Predict the structure.
Amino acid sequence: MAQPQADAAEADKPALGVGMVGYAFMGAAHSQGWRTVGRVFDLPRRPVLAAICGRDPGAVRAAADRHGWAAAETDWRALLERDDVDLVDICTPGDSHAEIALAALAAGKHVLCEKPLANTVEEAEAMTAAAEEAARRGQLAMVGFNYRRLPATALARSMVAEGRLGTLRHVRVTYLQDWLVDPEFPLTWRLRKEAAGSGALGDLGAHIVDLAQYLAGEPLAGVSALTETFVRERPLPGGPTSGLTATATAGAGQVTVDDAAVFTGRFTSGALASFEATRYATGRKNALRIELNGERGSLAFDLERLNELAYHDGTEPGTHAGFRRILVTEPDHPYLDAWWPPGHGLGYEHSFVHQARDLVLAIAQGSRPRPSFADGLQVQRVLAAVEESAEKNSAYTPIAVSSISV
Amino acid sequence: MAQPQADAAEADKPALGVGMVGYAFMGAAHSQGWRTVGRVFDLPRRPVLAAICGRDPGAVRAAADRHGWAAAETDWRALLERDDVDLVDICTPGDSHAEIALAALAAGKHVLCEKPLANTVEEAEAMTAAAEEAARRGQLAMVGFNYRRLPATALARSMVAEGRLGTLRHVRVTYLQDWLVDPEFPLTWRLRKEAAGSGALGDLGAHIVDLAQYLAGEPLAGVSALTETFVRERPLPGGPTSGLTATATAGAGQVTVDDAAVFTGRFTSGALASFEATRYATGRKNALRIELNGERGSLAFDLERLNELAYHDGTEPGTHAGFRRILVTEPDHPYLDAWWPPGHGLGYEHSFVHQARDLVLAIAQGSRPRPSFADGLQVQRVLAAVEESAEKNSAYTPIAVSSISV
Amino acid sequence: MAQPQADAAEADKPALGVGMVGYAFMGAAHSQGWRTVGRVFDLPRRPVLAAICGRDPGAVRAAADRHGWAAAETDWRALLERDDVDLVDICTPGDSHAEIALAALAAGKHVLCEKPLANTVEEAEAMTAAAEEAARRGQLAMVGFNYRRLPATALARSMVAEGRLGTLRHVRVTYLQDWLVDPEFPLTWRLRKEAAGSGALGDLGAHIVDLAQYLAGEPLAGVSALTETFVRERPLPGGPTSGLTATATAGAGQVTVDDAAVFTGRFTSGALASFEATRYATGRKNALRIELNGERGSLAFDLERLNELAYHDGTEPGTHAGFRRILVTEPDHPYLDAWWPPGHGLGYEHSFVHQARDLVLAIAQGSRPRPSFADGLQVQRVLAAVEESAEKNSAYTPIAVSSISV
Amino acid sequence: MAQPQADAAEADKPALGVGMVGYAFMGAAHSQGWRTVGRVFDLPRRPVLAAICGRDPGAVRAAADRHGWAAAETDWRALLERDDVDLVDICTPGDSHAEIALAALAAGKHVLCEKPLANTVEEAEAMTAAAEEAARRGQLAMVGFNYRRLPATALARSMVAEGRLGTLRHVRVTYLQDWLVDPEFPLTWRLRKEAAGSGALGDLGAHIVDLAQYLAGEPLAGVSALTETFVRERPLPGGPTSGLTATATAGAGQVTVDDAAVFTGRFTSGALASFEATRYATGRKNALRIELNGERGSLAFDLERLNELAYHDGTEPGTHAGFRRILVTEPDHPYLDAWWPPGHGLGYEHSFVHQARDLVLAIAQGSRPRPSFADGLQVQRVLAAVEESAEKNSAYTPIAVSSISV
């Protein structure tokens, strides 16, 4: 663990008050990130868990207690009015992202918004415009594509940026889960279009579209897609949900989102891409797998083994070449100087610690954090093109080209 | 190694004379199959390597010598007239398959034809019709999708047939090679449309389309595709080629086939599929990977580890469930009773030994061998739909549904 | 993340004051555990990071600040006198364990002591006797074999306890690191017998001996050993050390501990064991690997992939049997109900969170925590037998049989 | 497949008549080697399967028929008198190796003898002396450690010889099978000391001792060992055996060999070694695994994935370093120019083809084939030291140092 810089005692650092909206799965993960980041990284500002917000007074109070937030609010508008909140962290379902984020920026706060940025391109455009305007005032906005923040993916990005892959030829990505295989799994909010926007596409597809563009360092130019809803009616949920688990009750309702999406595409450089997002891949629990093949080398990553990156150096003599398994736990790997000795791996939640670190650093330095709302908008445009293509007989659907920040 | 049945001395078995056309990579592989099959399996007929055919008299003589063929011919029509040839094994490039196969069937021979069955659907239809007619006369025809003949893929098929996957949800398949990454690799016949029909699509795509339909036990209903030629001009080849290697010479020519194809599709049951065939996946040498996810279980296979099959039993309690690595080398695994003790793996070429075994058994029993020419035609239709979709802006392109034999 | 029980607000829970001695690698890891445990698990007592102790006033103050400890002490005897300290957590090198632990127990504190329990069997015996006496007064003691606390190892233990392996035949264990391969790595305290007791043997070997006995559920009966010091002189260290890294300075000194130890042994049941501990396994960063083979099944674990457990069910038909990769991230896996959805893996440090959880629960319930000081003593006896055997020409050296707690 | 050299038609090459004694598992494997080698490799002499020998007239006749041997003999002395036999290939159990090999050398034949070379050091010494004398007359002798002949192990040897590992620190080797886990498996000859010499030690241990010394490029200097017989009584066998399988019948007998052996040792350079040979590792079918760690790099191999070699280059910057998986199927890998394109793997039996190739080349060139009988003797001495150590309370037992040929 890196030693603190002698010149900055923790108590002397200016506080950065965080207010979080939502306290389910993402709320717990973000809380762990905010609680831990200042204990591990030596940051110029000291994150303070100022207040958490949720509609149910008892539940939000318990969540504040559990996760270490100083105060609890039941109205997010009240949270925005608090002076001790400098940054609003939005962990709600996608249908409320735009409203809260726009209000938070209007209230002069920095914003961290969970992915997908919004449920529609229009919302995302409004949010991006507002973030752009706010940035001129010094308020910063970031979208929560946390998988950019793993040491292995960050290392992959730097290796691509160094030119180790050369001209890119192929990107293939899957995000496979299996928690909907059972047709009796209940109809939670993630299966309703009005709350979730889309299904596997928005939840898992948003992650892999962002990660693919981030690692490739270029945006997608167009896509051709098929989507499917395998199980169209499910029992209604009853009782508490936790993480991805839930309990069924009497009655049934319609699934109004996709269960799976498969799509192909082209990057602006001409590289071919294939994507698959599904919650029906029996036995695959969190298999976000991405492989990039370039003229000079290849990289491969699997979220189920998140401390590893596979790398093939195509410039080596074939006699001794092969995909090597880099254990991304060395002190000079991204984020690793603050953690444990080589081989002592990190977990999923560390991506949220790192996300918090990068955002705090950006705020302290006044630089634009990445991924930006514009990056979130670009992902939204890809998802919209996927849906459009799927509706139009899989016709190849171009995406308005924008730059992405990596 | 299984002992011979006491009642059938090899010498007493009726011979089955084989005549092979072509002696490059596939010719060598088929020769090894024919030479070995009667030494390992106890067959009702004794395969005899009667004659091999090629245009260059010296080269074909040397090949006969090397591979153990009793005679050499320089005109395939002469091969078809030989009385000691009962079965014609066609190992030439795809542009000559139809002509030779039709003539061989007309000459009263059984036929084994390398994949892809033909370079066009029309040729494949004619061949299938001829095979159908010949079958009524007792002449049998088989197409050489040898990857059905690996113990692991054959085991996978039987597990699907037993219902271990339940309703199929996803099939994802890649066939990744990298021998064209170098832009100086010369323009061999495999890169010219007139000889090869198509590029990665016909060569690699044909294998994975057949294998996917075989394992799924059902045909594809439609596809949406993107194809690409990354390097459009290459140096002309000079000197001998061997396997997939070749030497460049002065001058350059146009690549007239695809370098890579990515496509999605639907099986007739509604399962989603994704396919990728490429020769530009740096570091991937022969990565034919297929995974099937069903409501009750999943299977995964990788040709680079061909003695293994991964299986997830979705009906097990989650506490102890996981993808298991079945080492497909047990005596009760397909083809394995004739080979070595558990854990003593087989190689690529064994698929040709097994193909020969299955064809000899079918001929001896008078049953239709699988995969049939009709199966080859079905694959051809899928490939044609891929090309059509790629030309029509990736529009989803239905495939005339036919049955497949598994 | 599991919701808090409605009936126990955090603030209402009785505090459990923790005082920690040492703040290097282990101190940082334990701090993360103590900070996090009450936020993730619903515990009957609320751990409070009361005070941290170290000799350098500035450094210990900075560490308190960084890691979130309320107070800092420079004399561990002062720490023991604090009323707000209920539990003393000893994270110093092994040569001070006995003195501090004995004093802490005498002072009426609960004790958590890092492994190895002590540098000699005699110290460990005294500590075990004191712990036994203290337990009668309600003070509890635990030794920090944190690798028992990973979900995968805890699952393995429960599977062995269920009889899934049957009669045990083989246990093979390695703990491979490579941070001493470079002969210029400096002579830190871990390479000096007076501070560390032994080298790879006490550091890595202690872990694998405990883990092997824990998973097997039985003690070792005897061992035969070879040890080696490959590099006998190293530069003196200068400047700060962090984790396992350090900087060299002028001058050189003798390495007085082993660089590696290989030993074989017998468990009391008659199962054969092999062990290897080394810091010279180039490319292996933290490869604690253990495999157990029993008459009915086998288990295998690798710390470099700590979210996975491999299991072979030997009672299954061979046709479909194979080592399965259990992703130990399901809600019903040990410790996992408090964490993330399936497939969202944990890291190294979570073992310390779980260790803290189990210790707090034991204290709250008044039950003996495991592993006990007696377990630490048993490990010490094995290590002593290893050293004795290595000195006596590898002669098989029996170990006084004691019971172990699992 | 490499084309034949134009200047040497197969028919014009001088024949090399092979006479084989034994036709069980090893006989079948060697037959496949002899049948295939001249078809794949361009050799200066043409191997002819002249005669096979076994005691049961009907069975040996059937084996000749099946495996393609021109003649059958029932007395190995008669085989030695045949003029068409230049080389005697001994595939019998170890108790007859010495007698047959000595007689064959006396009869002026070249000799290939299966491993272990003999059942005792004394026999092996006599054989080595006879081989040395015969070599002066131009008769050559080789012992069948076929695992030196896999492309991956041969590549590993060349990488060690190039200095890629630097000073060797560790060698760890296991050979794990599980076909004796079932206590009802019958008492075949492999479980009787008088026929097999020893159990897992001589069968599996001989392989790993030879392979370890071959890859390390140096002999073992001493060992410390434990051996065990877990199941001491087994049913008598009845009916035919095949490969490693057999059928039980009424009655029972004593197992007089070891079931498993674990031993540690030192190489002459000071590197530490650990070995384990067992037939009780449930779920491990043929897990011959070897890893070598040197100051500059590491290599790892697993026979269950025999087309792969893992290599860590310790001289690379840690940022991008990792164990790489070399797919040993490139044309410039050992033996591979004669086989298939990259990624098209070989199997177990290819080791026998390669062994035949190397022996034919050595005979044609008049050079000493490797591994020599002296190498077989060195392995025998290690096995004897293992047995001696196991009897003497695991005392470290030195081995008379001899050179080995690699």
